[in-house]
C-alpha cells in the first residue's frame, strides 16, 4: 500500500475514533449536568477555574471502580448532585488516545458545546480541523474543507452498535433518571468526601455485548462538574493483556449562552434535511 493511501486510512481511522468518543461524551454529558443553582454559581464565578489540587489517577488504574457495584443509594446520591437542565454547556477539551500498537499517544484538542434540545458540537482544532454535530438521530461531520457527511441511526444497517442503539439509550437518559440506565449498563461507583480534592468516579459497562465491545469500559469523574471521561478497550484478541485508552479532560466549562460559532454549527445542521441514505456527502460549506 502506498503512502498516500496509508495516510488516508489513518485519517479515516482517527475520525471513527473521534466519533466513538463524541457519542460517549454526548451520553455522559446528558447525565452529568449541573442543577440550576450550581450552574448559576459556576456561570458568574468559576467559568475558567479548574478544581484545586486535583490529583488525576492514571487511566488504567481507574478500572478499580469496576470492583464496586453501585447501589441504588449511591445512584440516588449522585442523581441529587447532577440533574438534567435545559442549560447550555460549553468549554474546551483535551483528548489523548493511547493505542497499544503505537509507541506515541494521539493527542487532540478543541471546543465542545451541548444543549439537550439542540444536540452536541465537537469541534476539533488540532491536529486537523473537523467538526461533528449530533442532532437527534443524525451525526453530521464537517471536515476542514467544509465537506459535509451525514450518518443516521434510523437507517444504519452496518454493524455499528453505537449508532443502532443510541436512540433507545437517549430515551433513558433524557428522563434524567440514573436508575433507568441500569437496563442498559451495569453501574459502578466510588464516592469522594465532599471536602476532599478527589474526584467521584462512575463506571458504566454496557450489557449488550456489541455495545460493550464498541465502548469498552466507560469511566466518568467529577467534583461539582464533570472533569474527565476515560474509555478502556481491550487492544485486540491477540493482545488481551493490553488496553487502548481514551482520556478526555474538560476545562473552562461554562453555562453561558452559546457563543456565535457554536450557535452557527447548530443552525447549519438543524436546517439541513436528513439525507435519504445512511451516509451522504454534500457540497462544502464555509467553516470558521
UniProtKB/TrEMBL annotation:
The keyword Protein transport applies. Keywords: Lipoprotein, Protein transport, Signal, Transport. Residues 1-39 form the signal peptide. GO terms for biological process: protein transport. InterPro entries: LolA/LolB/LppX, OM_lipoprot_carrier_LolA-like. Pfam families: LolA_3. The keyword tRNA processing does not apply. It comes from the Bacteria. Monomer. This is Outer membrane lipoprotein carrier protein LolA. It comes from Shewanella holmiensis.
